[in-house]
Amino acid sequence: MKLTTLTERIEKAEATIAKKTTTIEKKIASISKKTEKLEAMGYKYETYFEARDFSNDEAYDLAYSIRWFKEDIERLEKEIEEKKETLEKYRKQMAGELERESVFLKEIPEAFKSYQDELVNRWDEWDKAHREDMKKKYDELGYRGFFDRYSYSDYEIRHKTDKEIHEANVEDAKRLILNLYYRVKDITGEVTSWDDLYITNGNGGAVINGFVIGKEGRAKVESILAGGYNIQRLHVRVLVHEY
Fold this sequence. Notes:
Elements: H1 3-40, H2 45-51, H3 57-106, H4 110-149, H5 152-157, H6 162-188, E1 191-193, E2 197-202, E3 205-214, E4 217-226, E5 235-242
Helix pairs in contact: 1-3, 4-6
């Protein structure tokens, strides 16, 4: 999940908790005032319903209003606890994403970053062309005819901007690169040399191949490309073997 999305969710959860907390505070203050009025009329809220003296309409309204407010506070408190659990989940996800971002910025070799850029460029190009094609197909076929032949994701891409396409592809490529990085390190341990890792360009696009040397072993990296044509976006399968 993107950091911006997590930040928005955290801020929204915090705002919801703050709003519900403020509502509880207002209801507590209202309960206090209503309780004072009830007592001034000679009734105690704690024993009002047990006594079953409902002859005074105003006292009756006050007592039931207090009860409703108390029940509402219980509901709000439960909702706040649930929202706090959700908030904690988002914060843990944020910590994980920040750690991954830190790894990407500090430890990922330039060869991997260059490879990411190449993938993003290829995917951007394909997605933009696919978007325009889906717009034309929708205009030609209409709603029902379109869904007889295409998927909902094909329908959705018609409305995506260049920026949305690019940002999604950057995240997808980053996840692929981080996954590759951790798979390499599982074999090599702490990396001592990325020098034998290289990028080459072929008919299908850029591929990353070579060897990575670490304190605990040596890994062979081998890329396989699929797609990149009119009917399928470029897919990358990167194999990592102990060597």
